[in-house]
C-alpha cells in the first residue's frame, strides 16, 4: 500500500497524516500544493471544498486529516494504532472527538490573537486560556492512571492530541504551569521524542514564559475625537435630486449585462478550457548531481542527540561544489523588532508563507528571533543547493532587506559562527553572537 499526499509541507494537519503513515510504515509520496493553489481546478477535482490535506488511494481521494488517519490505521489494524479491540477502537474515536471539540475552539480563540491576525481581546483570551488549563487538568487526571489515551500503547488518538497540544506548550502554557501537570508532561515527552514525530515536527521547544498578547497601539486623540459624535447629533441624509429608485436602477443594469457580445463569452469559455502552462524546471534541478543527500542529512540531524558532533560530520561530508552554507540576517526597519510576538510573526510569516515552499527540498535551516525587546533581530544559519543565493530568495519581496554571508568551511571562525546557530537551540537560555535565542524554527 502506498498513497499520494497533497498539501503544503508546513501544514500541521499534513504532518499529522505523514506521522501516522510513518508509524504504520506506509510509503507516502508528498505532492506540494500551496495554500494559493487550493482553489485550482486540479485541487478542486481532489477536494471540492478546497481544503488540505488530501490523499489519493486506489479507491479515490480522501480529505479531512482525522478521517485520513483513521483510514490509514484501519488499513493496518494489526498494528494496534487504532486499538486492539472494538471497544478500544471506540475509545480512540472518543478521544479524537474530545480533542477536536474541547481543544480546537479554544485554540482558534487564543492563537489568532497571539499571532496578531485578530485584534487582541484580553477578556476572551483569558477566558479561553483558563478553559485550556481546565482541559489540561482533566488530561493530567487521565494520564495518572494510563500511559496513553487508550490502553498501554500509542494510538492515533495520541497523535491527534499531541498535534493540538504542542502549540499550547510552545507559546501559551509557561514552564511553571506545566510543572503542575507531571503525568501529562511525561506522556508528552514520550510521544514527542519518537523518531517519527521528530522527523515530521522537529524538536519541540517549550516556552519558559508564555508569549504575551500584542500591545494595542494608542489611538491618536484627533481620531478619537472624530469617532466620538454628540449623542443628539444625527447626520442629515442628503440624496441627489435626480437619484433614481434602487429598483429602477437594477432593472436598467440587467439589460446592459445581457448585451455582452456572445463572442466575448465564448472567448472566456475557451480560456477556461485551456490547459495550464507547464511548470518551469527549478534551476537547482539542473545543477550537476551531488553525492550529498539533504534528506538523509535531515534524518540524521533529528536522530542525533549530539548536534555538535552532527555538524562536524556535516563539515567533512558536505559537497562544497554542489551545496553551500550561509548565515542570513534580516535588516529590520526602525519600527521593527520591538515586540517579541510581532517579530516572531514576521519571522514565521516569512519562513512559512513568503518563501517558496518547494525550496524546502533543496535546503535546511534554523532561523529565529534573537535578542531582547525592543531590539530583537531575525537571523539564521542555512544550507542550500548550489553555491550562490538561489532564485527562491531573489524572488522574495524582502530579498533586498537581507544580508547573506557565505560560510567558508576551511575557516575556523566561520565554522564556529555557523555551529552556534545549530547547537544553541534552548530558547530563552542559549546565546548566539551574544544574543539570547527567543523563538526558533526549522526550515526543513
TrEMBL record:
Residues 280-438 form the EF-1-gamma C-terminal domain. SMART domains: EF1G. Pfam families: EF1G, GST_C, GST_N. GO terms for molecular function: translation elongation factor activity. Residues 1-80 form the GST N-terminal domain. Residues 218-283 have a biased composition (Basic and acidic residues). Keywords: Elongation factor, Protein biosynthesis. Residues 216-290 are annotated as: Disordered. Gene3D superfamilies: 1.20.1050.10, Glutaredoxin, Translation elongation factor EF1B, gamma chain, conserved domain. CDD domains: GST_C_EF1Bgamma_like, GST_N_family. SUPFAM superfamilies: eEF1-gamma domain, GST C-terminal domain-like, Thioredoxin-like. One of its GO terms (biological process) is translational elongation. Residues 85-216 form the GST C-terminal domain. It comes from the Eukaryota. The keyword Iron-sulfur does not apply. Signal peptide: none annotated. InterPro entries: EF-GSTs (IPR050802), EF1B_G_C (IPR001662), EF1B_G_C_sf (IPR036433), Glutathione-S-Trfase_C-like (IPR010987), Glutathione-S-Trfase_C_sf (IPR036282), Glutathione_S-Trfase (IPR040079), Glutathione_S-Trfase_N (IPR004045), GST_C (IPR004046). One of its GO terms (cellular component) is nucleus. This is Uncharacterized protein.
Amino acid at each position: 500500500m502506498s498513497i499520494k499526499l497533497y498539501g503544503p509541507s508546513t501544514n500541521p494537519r499534513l504532518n499529522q497524516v505523514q506521522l501516522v503513515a510513518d508509524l504504520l510504515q506506509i510509503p507516502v509520496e508528498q505532492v506540494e500544493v500551496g495554500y494559493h493553489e487550493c482553489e485550482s481546478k486540479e485541487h478542486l477535482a481532489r477536494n471540492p471544498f478546497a481544503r488540505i490535506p488530501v490523499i489519493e488511494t486506489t479507491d479515490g481521494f480522501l480529505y479531512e486529516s482525522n478521517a485520513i488517519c483513521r483510514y490509514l490505521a484501519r488499513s493496518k489494524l494489526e498494528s494496534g494504532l487504532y486499538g486492539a479491540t472494538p471497544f478500544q477502537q471506540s475509545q480512540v474515536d472518543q478521544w479524537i472527538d474530545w480533542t477536536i471539540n474541547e481543544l480546537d475552539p479554544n485554540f482558534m480563540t487564543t492563537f489568532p490573537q497571539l499571532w496578531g491576525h485578530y485584534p487582541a481581546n484580553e477578556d476572551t483570551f483569558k477566558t479561553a486560556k483558563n478553559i485550556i488549563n481546565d482541559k489540561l487538568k482533566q488530561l493530567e487526571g487521565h494520564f495518572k492512571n494510563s500511559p496513553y489515551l487508550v490502553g498501554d500503547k500509542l494510538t492515533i488518538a495520541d497523535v491527534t492530541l499531541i498535534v493540538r497540544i504542542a502549540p499550547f506548550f510552545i507559546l501559551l502554557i509557561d514552564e511553571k504551569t506545566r510543572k503542575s501537570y507531571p503525568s501529562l508532561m511525561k506522556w508528552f515527552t514520550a510521544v514527542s521524542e519518537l523518531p517519527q514525530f521528530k522527523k515530521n515536527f522537529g524538536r519541540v521547544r517549550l516556552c519558559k514564559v508564555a508569549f504575551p498578547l500584542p500591545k494595542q497601539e494608542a489611538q491618536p486623540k484627533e481620531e478619537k475625537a472624530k469617532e466620538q459624535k454628540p449623542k443628539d447629533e444625527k447626520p442629515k441624509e442628503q440624496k441627489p435630486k435626480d437619484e433614481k429608485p434602487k429598483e429602477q436602477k437594477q432593472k436598467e443594469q440587467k439589460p446592459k449585462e445581457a448585451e455582452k457580445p456572445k463572442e466575448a463569452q465564448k472567448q472566456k469559455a475557451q480560456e477556461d478550457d485551456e490547459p495550464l502552462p507547464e511548470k518551469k524546471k527549478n534551476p537547482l534541478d539542473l545543477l550537476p548531481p551531488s553525492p550529498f543527500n539533504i534528506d538523509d542529512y535531515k534524518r540524521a540531524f533529528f536522530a542525533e542527540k549530539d548536534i555538535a558532533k552532527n555538524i562536524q560530520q556535516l563539515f567533512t561530508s558536505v559537497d562544497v561544489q554542489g551545496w553551500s552554507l550561509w548565515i542570513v540576517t534580516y535588516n529590520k526597519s526602525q519600527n521593527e523588532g520591538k515586540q517579541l510576538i510581532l517579530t516572531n510573526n514576521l519571522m514565521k510569516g516569512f519562513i512559512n508563507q513568503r518563501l517558496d515552499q518547494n525550496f524546502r527540498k533543496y535546503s535546511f535551516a534554523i532561523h529565529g528571533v534573537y535578542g531582547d525587546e525592543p531590539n530583537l533581530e531575525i537571523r539564521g544559519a542555512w544550507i542550500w543547493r548550489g553555491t550562490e543565493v538561489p532564485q527562491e530568495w531573489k524572488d522574495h519581496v524582502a530579498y533586498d532587506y537581507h544580508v547573506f554571508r557565505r560560510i567558508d568551511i576551511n575557516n575556523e571562525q566561520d565554522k564556529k559562527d555557523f555551529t552556534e546557530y545549530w547547537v544553541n537551540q534552548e530558547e530563552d537560555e542559549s546565546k548566539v553572537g551574544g544574543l539570547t535565542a527567543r523563538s526558533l524554527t526549522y526550515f526543513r
